[in-house]
Amino acid sequence: MAAGRGARRPRGAASVWLCCLLLLLLLLGRPAAAGGGPAPQSPGAGVRTFTPFHFLVEPVDTLSVRGSSVILNCSAYSEPLPKIEWKKDGTFLNLVSDDRRQLLPDGSLFISNVVHSKHNKPDEGYYQCVATVESLGTIVSRTAKLTVAGLPRFISQPEPSSAYAGNSAVLNCEVNADLAPFVRWEQDRQPLLLDDRVAKLPSGALVISNVTEADGGLYRCVVDGGGGPPKFSDEAELKVLADPEVPSDLVFLKQPPSLVRAVGQSVVLPCVASGLPAPTIRWLKNEEALDTDSSERLVLLAGGSLEISEVTQDDAGTYSCVAGSGNETIEAQAELTVQAPPEFLKRPASLYAHESMDIVFECEVTGKPAPTVKWVKNGDVVIPSDYFKIVKEHNLQVLGLVKSDEGFYQCIAENDVGNAQAGAQLVILEHAPATTGPLPSAPRDVVASLVSTRFIKLTWRTPASDPQGDSLTYSVFYTKEGTARERVENTSRPGEMQVTIQNLMPATVYIFRVTAQNRHGSGESSAPLRVETQPEVQLPGPAPNIRAYATSPTSITVTWETPLSGNGEIQNYKLYYLEKGTDKEQDIDVSSHSYTLNGLKKHTEYTFRVVAYNKHGPGVSTQDVTVRTLSDVPSAAPQNLSLEVRNSKSIVVHWQPPPPATQNGLISGYKIRYRKASRKSDVTETLVVGTQLSQLIEGLDRGTEYNFRVAALTINGTGPATDWLSAETFESDLDETRVPEVPSSLHVRPLVTSIVVSWTPPENQNIVVRGYAIGYGIGSPHAQTIKVDYKQRYYTIENLDPSSHYVITLKAFNHVGEGIPLYESAVTRPHTVPDPTPMMPPVGVQASILSHDTVRVTWADNSLPKHQKITDSRYYTVRWKTNIPANTKYKNANATTLSYLVTGLKPNTLYEFSVMVTKGRRSSTWSMTAHGTTFELVPTSPPKDVTVVSKEGKPRTIIVNWQPPSEANGKITGYIIYYSTDVNAEIHDWVIEPVVGNRLTHQIQELTLDTPYYFKIQARNSKGMGPMSEAVQFRTPKADSSDKMPNDQASGSAGKGSRLPDLGSDYKPPVSGSNSPHGSPTSPLDSSVLLVLIVSVGVVTIVAVVVVAVFCTRRTTSHQKKKRAACKSVNGSHKYKGNAKDVKPPDLWIHHERLELKPIAKSPDPNPIMTDTPIPRHSQDTTPAGTSSDGSTHQRRNSYRGHESEDSMSTLAGRRSMRPKMMMPFDSQPPQPVISAHPIHSLDNPHHHFHSSSLASAARSHLHHPGSPWPVATSMSLSDRANSTESVRNTPSTDTMPASSSQTCCADHQDPEGATSSSYLASSQEEDSGQGLPTAHVRPSHPLKSFAVPAVPPPGPPTYDPALPSTPLLSQQALNHHLHAVKTASIGTLGRSRPPMPVVVPSAPEVQETTRMLEDSESSYEPDELTKEMAHLEGLMKDLNAITTA
After folding, report:
1. Rounded to whole angstroms, how far apart are CA atoms 794 and 828?
2. Local structure of residue 1166 (DSSP, 8 states)
3. Integer Cα distance of 52 and 31 in angstroms
4. How far is the C-alpha of 700 from the C-alpha of 705, rounded, in Å?
5. What is the 3-state secondary structure (H, E, C) of 168-225?
6. φ, ψ at 491 (rounded to 5°)
7. Rounded to whole angstroms, what are the CA distances from 280 to 199, 248, 324, 328?
8. Which of 16, 551, 930, 1169 has CA atoms 20 to 30 A from the CA of 871?
């Protein structure tokens, strides 16, 4: 391989030099080409360049007259010279045999003797110049319009007129627009010279300003165009009148029309006015004054017309011509719209390309209105197809180039103003010849790895000639089957052997082939691969030819045709329609191709669109079509009809149009009908055309009453008329050249809130009175004014203030003005309405609590009928408040029924409610108060102010303090303290400390020194748990001398059931070594002496218990025996019956207060499993000797019950963040009984029944110390008092037990509270579905039998820690041990607490004896039975003795 590479290097270097030489030739041999890119070379032809080929001159729009000659210029540049041809209206002209049209040498078209008649117009039309160069291509010029002026026709001719000297005159002469430039004027048959005073408007009209006597005479206009003799209009005389010295009305002789002009043209806005004095003209544009003096493009022509030369887009706008004469002004407006021909912002650029490539010609144009764009290739219009596409609005994309695509492409833009063209050349290059060297073979294994509806992914392997193929690039050629046009897609980077072909057509067959390229060129092509794209779920296209037309004023018919549906027939159509001006579109399902909508609004625009549906769903919507319903006669009469009597013979009628929604079309006029009131059958009609809203009716009779009515008209007819309205003409023509005189009298009559005004008309009846004006106000009559009709003689002024002084004026008025006022004053009466009597307050107000925040308040109303139905407008006001805090305000709400739902209250809060009733201005007093306390809700805020402090003198003990939550929402029944050394640990991995009651402090012992802990607290009430507080961090102090007790390094300790007082330094512990719960490893007593002492104390205690039991049993009556038996059954003793094979050797629990055989329930699980038991892995986790190790092991559980004393203590198994777990088999038997110290409390607490069932299901886990034959139990009591024990297990069956029965039974036969075993306390964690708190469960497989043996009492007086809650930690030895559980029974001084007594512990009995003893535990004990039980006990003691001696 290396040798091969070395051999090829010289050739590679030579090829590099050759490429550089060719590039130099390219740069020197051709000009830079638009479109960029290197110019590839073609074989044997040198370097190809773009050929200059363009128009030098293009034809322009031309106006000609009949019989004249026309030249349309055209010249093109190219080498060689192009061939020029002409098209007229898209068809080539045959100029060889045409004697009137000929081609000039430069390419221009000459037309001689233009022909034009009414029915023969061969020369008028659109001309286009076509230039062709053989082997290059063809280009076309812009299109030029040749217009031939027709025969002269006068649309309007001059008319005789007159003008005052100094004024302006206008003589109209309107001809067809083509000939307007050929109009000239003659005065008295002589040509009229135009100057600043005499001007001709573009329409042909003549304007003469500042008329003098010399301007009088006969005028006519002459049309010289048309190719024939001049045509003369009629003559009209202009008379010049002398100045009458009397002002005349100001009127427009010529007003400016709205015009449309193209950029660069000139425009004249005519405006001529007449009046005396002679008017002045000024112009405004968009309400701003135009300065015509300082602008070169703005010129005022004769009479005041405005000429703007070379208009631009900025000249567009609204122009106002304002004529002023004296104090009078009139105004006329016109809109000037400026259009722009197409202009290229980006012209197409010439391009080089290879076959199969895709190219895009860019073309960007502007113009007003927006131009349309079409593309031409070599003179032929490009029709869009699969391979020629219009993209990005105007760009042309050509896909899969072939050699025939070469040529010239032109972008032609056109709008109403003109057209323009821009072209570019496309050169198709041959592929460069391969350099010397091996070419790659065909790629192998070309496959379509992914075929979709519109794309295909191809993959292949490298050619056999180059197995590595790292430097190869690939080209994928593809074509639609049946077409010769091939496209190419190149890989994006060398070595890539896959490509995705996009934008394919669904269900279409394509042919693919792949070639590889190396540095020498392109290699062989792969075999063609035929692939068909997937068929697409086709939705219908838009329905073609949608049309809508109105069929009546309330109906429209919409029609359409079937769209191209794709896969599946059209199922139905949905017709959408929308009323113009609204945004709520409605739709109708249609099964045919037309639909008529009825019930539409008259003369209203609607838009429609259609969507076709097939089995795949809705297709493409059509474009919106808009149509207006037909007009109709108005459906309402004109509004506000009023009559004004002008004089004795005329009345003016005024009105307003009907409401817009009822006009039903354009109002074309109004019809007025009137008649004499005495002759109602004789009706006269007057028609008012247009939008005029008043009409003078003349020729009426004097002193006669007439009735009038008005109706509106549309092109469809007459709408409804107004009601008849009457008016009476005057008896005689009265004088209205002066104001009326003062009214003859004015009287006022005051009331409480109004004043009645009455008057009589003026004494002089010869002056017209149109009406009366009444002014009034407090202290001044000018505050308000009211006008009334002239016929009225009184008026009531309303809404006045009582006991107020008003001044009133009365004036008569007419069109001249208001007459002399007449004054009067009045004081309104005082308001003396008596206060209404109060109503009776509602009774029986009750507050029904519905939830924690809702109370329903109900009441009765004695003022209602018996059925308590409210039929009047009375309403009730409910008010409520709480007294916490004391300054809270009442809240109110109104109700119209006899109840109200008060919401938004606070939970667990006492509210008071009261109600009052209001009817009109009468109200009752507040009712009696009803009270209600809302229900509790879980706390909605966490405990506050959580602090953690270290206990003085005990660095491993901390005290947690807190404050209750601010939103407790009920009585707080307890708290839960969570703590952990990892603040990010899952919450079920945190240690839990329950606190019962509303205590706000708790003590936790046996924490690890110099360790950060995190604490959270959660409050609880009867409804559940609240949110947790934020985590509080506390680092325990470092170790000091007082804390470093020898027991800190002990490997394990037996937990004590109750907290023992400090025994003093002289006390010698009963157990030496690391197993002592209190002692020191330096204790002088060895283990044998300690065992003898324990056995002795146990035997003495048992004997004392037996003696007392015998004494008590003899005094028991038979009734008490039955009662005791019943209580035993209640406690569930009968549940523990079982076969002898289920019983295992006993587990002996030694208690220090009394001896008791406790029944423990069997696990319901028939298949015992392995249980995880977390245990500490460090010796520092053991309980120190300095603190008593009583209290309960920390428990993971759902809920807790019962109460906890203030000095309750608890211990934690494993303070470290890493807590190992140990799997313990429940089925294996221990090799020997296990002794554990456990307290028995007094049994008179009513909560003990909880713990009886708890212990029944609790499993015991025992640890065997490796260095001692003594088994070590890890069971700990939960507390040291009867009412301080936490429930270990939720026991629903005991929740509903009556308190009386539980107390009675527990006094006779009940398990102590603290009798929970270590296996439960250190068991694996499980989730209980009840409360959602972390819970630890262990499922024992066998019942348990235990003895309780009390501890040795201290010799000195007991000393206790302060009464803070304390939780010492329980340590467990991380050793495997066996679990053994049997049933237990209890013997002891039931119901009474006794001091500890020495007990001698006998050896354990056989299994059979234990079984019999358990089976007898349900029956009452007679004296002989007790003797048998004592015998069994002695056997047990012997077994125990044997164990200890061993």
Report:
1. 18
2. S
3. 11
4. 10
5. CEEECCEECHHHHHHEEEEECCEECCCCCCEEECCCCCEEECCCCHHHCEEEEEEECC
6. -70, 155
7. 17, 14, 5, 11
8. 930
The residues with which 810 forms a beta bridge, in sequence order, are 774, 822
Residue in 671, 643, 675 with CA at minimum distance from that of residue 658: 671
Distance CA 610, CA 1311 (A): 85
Cβ atoms of 561 and 544 closer than 8 Å: yes
- 1046 to 24, 481, 1087, 1386, 1419: CA distances (angstroms): 98, 96, 19, 38, 50
Residue 534 pLDDT: 85
DSSP 735: B
Give the whole-angstrom CA distance, residue 746 versus residue 781: 14
Q: Would the pLDDT of 198 be above 50?
A: yes
Token output for 799: 């809404």
Looking at residue 1140, the DSSP 8-state letter turns out to be G
Q: Measured at the alpha carbon of residue 359, what is the angle toward residues 358 and 364, in degrees to the nearest 5?
A: 145
Tell me whether strands 910-919 and 922-923 are parallel, antiparallel or unpaired: antiparallel
423, amino acid identity: G
Our CA angle for 1075, 1256, 1426, nearest 5°, is 85
Between CA 433 and CA 440, with CA 436 as vertex, the angle to 5 degrees is 80
At 386, the pLDDT band (50, 70, 90 cuts) reads: confident
**Residues 1381-1404 pLDDT 10s:** 333 333 343 344 444 444 444 444
User: Count of CB atoms within 10 A of residue 1210's CB?
Assistant: 32
**What is the pairing mode between strands 217-223 and 407-414?**
unpaired
Conformation bin of residue 750: beta by default, left when phi > 0, alpha when psi is -120 to 50: beta
CA nearest to 906, candidates 857, 962, 849, 945: 849
Q: Give CA–CA dist 1335/1254, Å, rounded.
A: 14
Q: Which residues contact 1145 (CB under 8 A, 6 or more apart)?
A: 1229, 1230, 1233, 1380, 1382, 1404, 1407, 1410
* pLDDT 10s digits, 143-159: 999 888 777 778 888 88
CA angle 1431/1433/1434 to nearest 5° reads: 65
Q: Rounded to whole angstroms, how far apart are CA atoms 1287 and 1257?
A: 12
**Backbone dihedral angles phi then psi of residue 962, each to the nearest 5 degrees:** -160, 175
How far apart, in whole angstroms, are the C-alpha atoms of residue 1000 and residue 151? 115
The residue to which tokens 């936490």 are assigned: 1286
CA neighbor of 412 nearest in space, from 86, 78, 55, 84: 55
Peptide bond into 80 cis (omega under 30): yes
110, two tokens: 């000459």
Is residue 651 packed enough to be buried (19+ CB in 10 Å), middle (13-18) or exposed (0-12)?
buried
Instruction: Tell whether the model's pLDDT for residue 1147 goes beyond 80.
Output: no
Sign of CA dihedral 314, 318, 323, 327: negative
C-alpha to C-alpha distance for 223 and 152, rounded to whole angstroms: 7
